[in-house]
Design a protein that fits this description.
nuclease, RNaseH_sf, two-stranded parallel sheet, 32% helix, 19% strand, 120 residues
Length: 120
Amino acid sequence: MLSGANIRRVVYGCMSLHTGHRLFYVSQRQRALDFQAFLRLVRRYYRGWHVAMLLDNETSHTAKSTQGLVQRLGTRLVWLLKRAPELKPMELLWLQGEKRRAPTGNIAPSTNTSLPSLPS
């Protein structure tokens, strides 16, 4: 059945610079709470590792509550410049994750790890 509604999904992802392993997380929204859930799961998956994330200035990343959680988790955030076309190749990482998305909205199985979505 065609509903005409576009289902929006947000794909959060990170990659180990040491191994190249990628971790994807799918959410229906891009709120601070959703990003914070992703941060907790990354910390759980990479426990014992130094975690640094390269991010843009999207409000879910810069929220005061997110910044507090980042401090408690010991995660380091590195901010992208607002206009940095030389960093555009990073978009390829997200495109690869999007292409593997299953019809249910979850990431299709692969050698990389996808984490469960938050309940709606």
